[in-house]
Every structure is written in structure tokens, then in C-alpha cells.
Amino acid sequence: MASRRTSSVPCPPVPSTGSQVIESTHSRSSFVYGGGIGVTFIDHLNVSAEYDAVRIQDADNSNALWPSTAWRF
Predict the structure, then answer these.
(1) Rounded to a whole number, what is the distance in angstroms from the first to the last CA of the chain?
(2) What is the residue range of 48's domain?
(3) Count of domains in the chain?
(4) For residues 17 and 61, which has the higher predicted lDDT (pLDDT)?
(5) What is the pLDDT of residue 18?
């Protein structure tokens, strides 16, 4: 089910015109899915990766790969 959204965001003042308002109206939905995996080595070093696929109209290559490492105490 698609919903209609309208939002207004005030922008910083522009010296010659005062302030601006950006408006956005749409009634479409975007599908997002993703997955990830993580492994811990030597009881402390965690290595993981996450992939997110985003399907957005008029935006090619919106997918993201998030690699990360963390030291666990």
C-alpha cells in the first residue's frame, strides 16, 4: 500500500533571497532487503560484512556493502 507524503525542510538563508523551502511529494514505495555475516577470531577480533539492496526509482547502484571489524573486550 503506497502512502502519500509531503514534507517541507527549511534551508539556511540565502543572502540575496532570504530563506528557502524544499518540498517533496511522492506516492511510491521502495523495496529494501539485506543480509550479513560475522566471524570472531581469537576470542576478540570480529570481522563482519553486510549487504543492503535498495530499489529506488531513478537511482542506479543504490546498493551498499558494509565491511567492518571490531575488537571485543
Answers:
(1) 45
(2) 5-71
(3) 1
(4) 61
(5) 59
